[in-house]
């Protein structure tokens, strides 16, 4: 019986091994009168069948990546989530209304009152320009769509594009099977979904696409040695620089990779062409972004790339001279002179640059990656962001699931078949895993590497297993290139059964992965953060829309030039939705200004009133979770207000607020805590409210205690608005008393 | 010691010269172009050292245009050189077209950066 090349749906094989010519198939088909829907009736050759399977898999993965991110749009509504995306939304709105020139030169006086902010020069424009271009394109095609819908759906769209890039990258590094698995894994991986759900209109949604694209194009350039691919990778790097500050990772990983290749002796002319053109063109393009400016030649974080650039010049120059000279003794002498001069000049230049301060050292944000304890001691504002904390094991398991143990397996396969591309992917994986361990937010950067390497493991394992499982039908073949197991398959049915059992196990694991990812997306990463949901006493869903209620009240009931003071978390939302001027916002570029607000919040009411009068504050906004049990409120953030305020103004001393080293709000709390502005504003009139059955009035559900100071009187402020669940409270600052 | 190093240097220089004389003319033209670009860059650095570096973006764009075009010319030389086994199936016309395209992009960016 002739072995027909039936397409197996579960495993995708690289069809060139079993190309039975089509002419042998057609006589069988013509005599086959049963009109079944097998692929044979389409009269395709094996290569075309394989292409059809690949394209259909990619289409399905593309659609899957998009729709798995739509949970919050379906459950709530199409709105922007969290805090940072509101700034991006506001700037995109500005861009579409006023045009690129106004956007690029925008000075915003509505935030950081009275300083203002040069928005045109201090943002990464990639995301906004991308959304604006999609918006204009849709408008050109006469789809009258609001810019908010475009913004909400930008991240899922680019996630789908990332799966395509992952496919091509996997194909470049290993083969098309690995590419398909990589695309499927990255489509649903929670580490990526967490920052790219619909509504999460943030830089990372676009930046991961640009990151993977840059890496793919660079590896392609190194593999082919073509200037065109290097130019493409320079453009992709430019897109990455315009999109996210994490481009520093690229500009350090690629030189490190070049260095590793040089040291292991795998260098070639293609490497020279690829790196040099990408570096020069990429650096020039990157300097067009005003926020980046001259950092590529002045900042310590970018010096590695320049150092490797010079090293490559010296290295290949020496290589060329060696090729020219036939006499090795002369070459040794020349080598000695050149190397000593080059190292000497380089060291002197670096030393002078760093000593004179011209080359700035590594900035706080990136230095804390190398020394994780740095931020805690020196820069409390970096330490206070919850995303900057070190990662727990549970986060890794939560975000990666089975990929966590497939990653070392994939590393093993990469080391078995070392090439320029696999060395790159191994380095990317290891460095990004280190950084993911230092900072929770960077799990996102590690996700593509982990997916790719795990895809290699999955693809190689399944390929070997299916070869063993199908060994019976290929007794005559002497075994494919790598499948040493197939030659044993003919006489040992146990091996075949074992292979089938392992295959079933592998499919079970992958299906559990898919279930886990969907569950995680649905439960953990699809909450808009601005709208809260809970279960009522009867199991019904209760929605708390307090934030938007408060911002809308601000928008409609305050004078247009009112200034609002709040903690910096809410700044972007207040400006975007409330349309009022704020004192500090999420950009956190001025630590002293934030410390002033922190000082005001932690002082007694009269001192705080002086500070508020000096800043022209009209309204104060606090977030309070005592009635609903919402735990991300300002009282829980109070310790950071004290620390940041105390960091700049020594009059605020943290021990004044502590009792036995902890912050308390009940009767045993420190007297300064019970009378500071934040406490008064949060708990004003709260002492009369019964929040829970069986508990005394004034029971704080978020802290789980009865508050200490129930009889609060405000002298310089009056309550303006409290939302229906008491989550947001707005107070008006009274003008000073008349003299008589 | 000094005498042997100077004799070494002379021998080095002679053998380099004789080996270089055998390279084809088109490669020598590219080498001349690279030399000219690097020389221009050096003149710019000396000028900057004399008059100061304001405006910095103009200085950088001038310097990087020289270095960039030198680097691209070296890449072209590598791709066109018949002795390089890796590039033997790359047509020299394609290499030159890539070179022109990259130079075009380089100089467009430079013009934007000049200020």
TrEMBL record, chain A:
<feature type="transmembrane region" description="Helical">
    <location>
        <begin position="271"/>
        <end position="291"/>
    </location>
</feature>
<keyword id="KW-0325">Glycoprotein</keyword>
<comment type="pathway">
    <text>Protein modification; protein glycosylation.</text>
</comment>
<feature type="transmembrane region" description="Helical">
    <location>
        <begin position="51"/>
        <end position="71"/>
    </location>
</feature>
<keyword id="KW-0812">Transmembrane</keyword>
<feature type="transmembrane region" description="Helical">
    <location>
        <begin position="244"/>
        <end position="264"/>
    </location>
</feature>
<feature type="transmembrane region" description="Helical">
    <location>
        <begin position="303"/>
        <end position="321"/>
    </location>
</feature>
<comment type="subunit">
    <text>Component of the oligosaccharyltransferase (OST) complex.</text>
</comment>
<keyword id="KW-0472">Membrane</keyword>
<feature type="transmembrane region" description="Helical">
    <location>
        <begin position="205"/>
        <end position="238"/>
    </location>
</feature>
<keyword id="KW-0256">Endoplasmic reticulum</keyword>
<comment type="similarity">
    <text>Belongs to the STT3 family.</text>
</comment>
<feature type="compositionally biased region" description="Polar residues">
    <location>
        <begin position="11"/>
        <end position="23"/>
    </location>
</feature>
<keyword id="KW-0460">Magnesium</keyword>
<dbReference type="InterPro" id="IPR003674">
    <property type="entry name" value="Oligo_trans_STT3"/>
</dbReference>
<feature type="transmembrane region" description="Helical">
    <location>
        <begin position="333"/>
        <end position="359"/>
    </location>
</feature>
<dbReference type="GO" id="GO:0004579">
    <property type="term" value="F:dolichyl-diphosphooligosaccharide-protein glycotransferase activity"/>
</dbReference>
<feature type="transmembrane region" description="Helical">
    <location>
        <begin position="150"/>
        <end position="170"/>
    </location>
</feature>
<feature type="transmembrane region" description="Helical">
    <location>
        <begin position="176"/>
        <end position="193"/>
    </location>
</feature>
<protein>
    <recommendedName>
        <fullName>dolichyl-diphosphooligosaccharide--protein glycotransferase</fullName>
        <ecNumber>2.4.99.18</ecNumber>
    </recommendedName>
</protein>
<dbReference type="InterPro" id="IPR048307">
    <property type="entry name" value="STT3_N"/>
</dbReference>
<keyword id="KW-1133">Transmembrane helix</keyword>
UniProtKB/TrEMBL annotation, chain B:
<comment type="pathway">
    <text>Protein modification; protein glycosylation.</text>
</comment>
<feature type="transmembrane region" description="Helical">
    <location>
        <begin position="56"/>
        <end position="76"/>
    </location>
</feature>
<comment type="similarity">
    <text>Belongs to the DAD/OST2 family.</text>
</comment>
<dbReference type="GO" id="GO:0006487">
    <property type="term" value="P:protein N-linked glycosylation"/>
</dbReference>
<keyword id="KW-0256">Endoplasmic reticulum</keyword>
<dbReference type="InterPro" id="IPR003038">
    <property type="entry name" value="DAD/Ost2"/>
</dbReference>
<protein>
    <recommendedName>
        <fullName>Dolichyl-diphosphooligosaccharide--protein glycosyltransferase subunit DAD1</fullName>
    </recommendedName>
</protein>
<dbReference type="GO" id="GO:0008250">
    <property type="term" value="C:oligosaccharyltransferase complex"/>
</dbReference>
<keyword id="KW-1133">Transmembrane helix</keyword>
<comment type="function">
    <text>Subunit of the oligosaccharyl transferase (OST) complex that catalyzes the initial transfer of a defined glycan (Glc(3)Man(9)GlcNAc(2) in eukaryotes) from the lipid carrier dolichol-pyrophosphate to an asparagine residue within an Asn-X-Ser/Thr consensus motif in nascent polypeptide chains, the first step in protein N-glycosylation. N-glycosylation occurs cotranslationally and the complex associates with the Sec61 complex at the channel-forming translocon complex that mediates protein translocation across the endoplasmic reticulum (ER). All subunits are required for a maximal enzyme activity.</text>
</comment>
<dbReference type="Pfam" id="PF02109">
    <property type="entry name" value="DAD"/>
</dbReference>
<keyword id="KW-0812">Transmembrane</keyword>
<keyword id="KW-0472">Membrane</keyword>
<keyword id="KW-0053">Apoptosis</keyword>
<comment type="subunit">
    <text>Component of the oligosaccharyltransferase (OST) complex.</text>
</comment>
<feature type="transmembrane region" description="Helical">
    <location>
        <begin position="96"/>
        <end position="114"/>
    </location>
</feature>
<feature type="transmembrane region" description="Helical">
    <location>
        <begin position="32"/>
        <end position="50"/>
    </location>
</feature>
């Amino acid at each position: 019986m002739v072995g027909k090349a039936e397409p197996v749906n579960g495993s995708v094989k690289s069809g060139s091994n079993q190309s039975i010519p089509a002419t042998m198939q057609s006589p069988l088909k013509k005599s086959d009168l049963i009109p079944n829907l097998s692929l044979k009736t389409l009269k395709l050759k094996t290569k075309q069948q394989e292409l059809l399977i690949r394209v259909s898999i990619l289409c399905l993965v593309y659609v899957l990546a998009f729709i798995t991110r739509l949970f919050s749009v379906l459950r709530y509504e199409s709105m922007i989530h969290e805090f940072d995306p509101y700034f991006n939304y506001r700037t995109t709105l500005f861009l579409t209304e006023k045009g690129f020139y106004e956007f690029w030169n925008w000075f915003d006086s509505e935030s950081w009152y009275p300083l203002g902010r040069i928005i045109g020069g201090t943002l990464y424009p990639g995301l906004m320009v991308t959304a604006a271009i999609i918006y204009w394109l849709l408008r050109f095609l006469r789809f009258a769509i609001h810019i908010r819908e475009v913004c909400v759906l930008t991240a899922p769209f680019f996630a789908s594009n990332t799966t395509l890039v992952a496919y091509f990258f996997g194909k470049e590094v290993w083969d098309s099977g690995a590419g398909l698995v990589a695309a499927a894994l990255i489509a649903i991986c929670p580490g990526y979904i967490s920052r790219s759900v619909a509504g999460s209109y943030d830089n990372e949604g676009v930046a991961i696409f640009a990151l993977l694209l840059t890496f793919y194009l660079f590896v392609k350039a190194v593999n082919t040695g073509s200037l065109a691919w290097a130019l493409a990778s320079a453009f992709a790097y430019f897109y990455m620089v315009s999109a996210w500050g994490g481009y520093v990772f690229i500009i350090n990983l690629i030189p490190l990779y070049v260095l590793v290749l040089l040291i292991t002796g795998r260098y070639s002319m293609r490497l020279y062409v690829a790196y040099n053109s990408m570096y020069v063109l990429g650096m020039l393009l990157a300097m067009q972004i005003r926020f980046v400016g001259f950092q590529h030649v002045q900042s310590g974080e970018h010096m590695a790339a320049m150092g490797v650039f010079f090293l490559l010049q010296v290295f290949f120059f020496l290589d060329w001279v060696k090729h020219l000279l036939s006499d090795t003794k002369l070459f040794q002498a020349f080598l000695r002179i050149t190397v000593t001069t080059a190292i000497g000049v380089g060291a002197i230049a670096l030393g002078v640059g760093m000593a004179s301060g011209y080359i700035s050292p590594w900035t706080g944000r990136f230095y804390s990656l190398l020394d994780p304890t740095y931020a805690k001691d020196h820069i409390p504002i970096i330490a206070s962001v919850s995303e900057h904390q070190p990662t727990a094991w549970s986060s890794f398991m939560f975000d990666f699931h089975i990929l966590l143990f497939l990653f070392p397996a994939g590393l093993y396969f990469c080391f078995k078949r070392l090439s320029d591309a696999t060395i790159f992917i191994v380095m990317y994986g290891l460095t990004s895993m280190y950084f993911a361990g230092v900072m929770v937010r960077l799990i996102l950067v590690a996700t593509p590497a982990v997916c790719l390497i795990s895809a290699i493991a999955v693809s190689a394992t399944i390929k070997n297993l299916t070869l063993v499982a199908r060994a019976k039908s290929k007794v005559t073949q002497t075994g494919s290139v790598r499948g040493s197991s197939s030659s044993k398959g003919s006489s040992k049915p146990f091996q075949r059964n074992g292979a089938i059992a392992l295959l079933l196990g592998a499919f079970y694991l992958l299906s559990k992965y898919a279930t886990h990812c969907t569950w995680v997306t649905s439960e953990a990463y699809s909450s808009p953060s601005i709208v809260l949901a809970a279960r009522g006493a009867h199991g019904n869903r209760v929605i708390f829309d307090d934030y938007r209620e408060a911002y809308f009240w601000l928008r409609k009931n305050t004078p247009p030039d009112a200034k609002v003071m709040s903690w910096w978390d809410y700044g972007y939302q207040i400006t975007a939705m409330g349309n009022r001027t704020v004192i500090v916002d999420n950009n956190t570029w001025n630590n002293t200004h934030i410390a002033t607000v922190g000082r005001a919040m932690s002082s007694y009411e009269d001192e705080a009133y002086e500070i508020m009068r000096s800043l022209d504050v009209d309204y104060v906004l606090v977030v309070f979770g005592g009635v609903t049990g919402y735990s991300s409120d300002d009282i829980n953030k109070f310790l950071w207000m004290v620390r940041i305020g105390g960091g700049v103004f020594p009059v605020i001393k943290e021990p004044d607020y502590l009792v036995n080293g902890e912050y308390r709000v009940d009767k045993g709390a420190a007297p300064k805590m019970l009378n500071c502005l934040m406490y008064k504003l949060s708990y004003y009139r709260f002492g009369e409210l019964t929040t829970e059955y069986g508990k005394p009035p004034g029971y704080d559900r978020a802290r789980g205690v009865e508050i200490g100071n129930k009889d609060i009187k405000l002298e310089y402020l009056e309550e303006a608005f409290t939302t229906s669940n008491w989550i947001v409270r707005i107070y008006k600052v009274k003008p000073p008393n008349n003299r008589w | 010691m000094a005498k042997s190093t100077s004799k070494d240097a002379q021998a080095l220089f002679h053998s380099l010269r004789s080996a270089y004389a055998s390279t084809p003319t088109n490669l020598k033209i590219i080498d001349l172009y690279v030399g000219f670009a690097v020389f221009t860059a050096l003149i710019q650095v000396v000028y900057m050292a004399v008059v100061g570096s304001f405006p910095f973006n103009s200085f950088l764009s001038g310097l990087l245009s020289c270095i960039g075009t030198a680097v691209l010319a070296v890449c072209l030389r590598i791709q066109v050189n018949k002795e390089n086994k890796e590039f033997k199936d790359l047509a020299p016309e394609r290499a030159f077209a890539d070179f022109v395209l990259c130079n075009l992009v380089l100089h467009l960016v430079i013009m934007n950066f000049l200020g």
